[in-house]
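WARN no homologs supplied; continuing
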Amino acid sequence: MNWGTVRRNDADRGAVAGYPTSAAYGGGAPIGGRSALSRHVHADAGLRALAMFAKTDRGTEARILGVAWLALDTAFELGP
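OK structure emitted
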């Protein structure tokens, strides 16, 4: 899991338009795995959650994003 703090580069211009200029806090937590289906084929699956929170004059706003994926991978052997 990782957390960070972000300050908008355009905060001064955003303030004129009424957008919050305070720092935002957020982070994400990925999890995933791989399973061999055969010698050359693998299945990958994973989840990732991201969240960002910003203080505004109305309280704290939150943005939450969740992503899931499933993929099949193949490997090729070159040479003799």
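The first helix runs from residue 11 to 16.
OK
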